[in-house]
Design brief:
Helix content: 10-25%
Largest sheet: 8 strands, antiparallel, barrel
Number of helices: 3
Structural class: alpha+beta
Strand order of the largest sheet: 1-3-4-5-6-7-8-9
Mean pLDDT: 80
Radius of gyration: 17 Å
Order of helices and strands: HEEEEEHEHEEE
Strand content: 35-45%
Low-confidence stretches: 2-18
């Protein structure tokens, strides 16, 4: 009975965090602070996922990350990266929906938020995606586009 109560208590607090997104932006070489993007979630796989607003359908995603040369590291590689704090580096692209009147630098300040009352343009940009060392599954991605960095912290989905 005691175990059941503990499980129920932990489940109540753990379930709402699944797929939660935290963001951080690098402008002119400086990282901002991590923000809890509480109304945004992720859906997808390690090498292909979207970020979307919880009140919208996932097909209306704000940001999509696709890693084209992803490989699943074996345990030996994971241990080496973990021990040396060596980030994995991949190439790929991002698709980003932003208001028509925004340029990339303007949209950084609102990332991942985009006002819902404006028309969107979808842009596709080449990116370098770096993944922080991990033991089981990746949770921190740094996406680099045209000299700007987007830090994505993901509580696994």
């Amino acid at each position: 009975m005691k175990r059941l109560l503990i499980f129920i208590f932990l489940s109540i607090f753990a379930l709402p965090c699944l797929g939660q997104v935290y963001t951080c932006v690098n402008i002119d070489g400086y990282w901002g602070k991590w923000e809890n993007s509480q109304y945004y979630y992720t859906k997808g796989t390690t090498d292909n996922f979207i970020i979307y607003h919880t009140w919208r359908h996932p097909s209306e995603y704000t940001f999509k990350v696709v890693i084209s040369n992803y490989f699943r590291p074996d345990n030996k590689t994971k241990r080496r990266h973990w021990k040396n704090n060596e980030w994995y580096e991949y190439s790929g692209y991002v698709e980003w929906r932003m208001p028509d009147n925004y340029e990339i630098k303007d949209a950084l300040y609102a990332f991942p938020n985009c006002p819902s009352s404006t028309k969107y343009k979808k842009i596709k940009l080449q990116a370098t995606i770096k993944i922080a060392p991990y033991k089981k599954v990746p949770s921190v991605y740094n996406v680099w586009i045209k000299g700007y960095g987007y830090g994505l912290g993901i509580d696994r989905y």
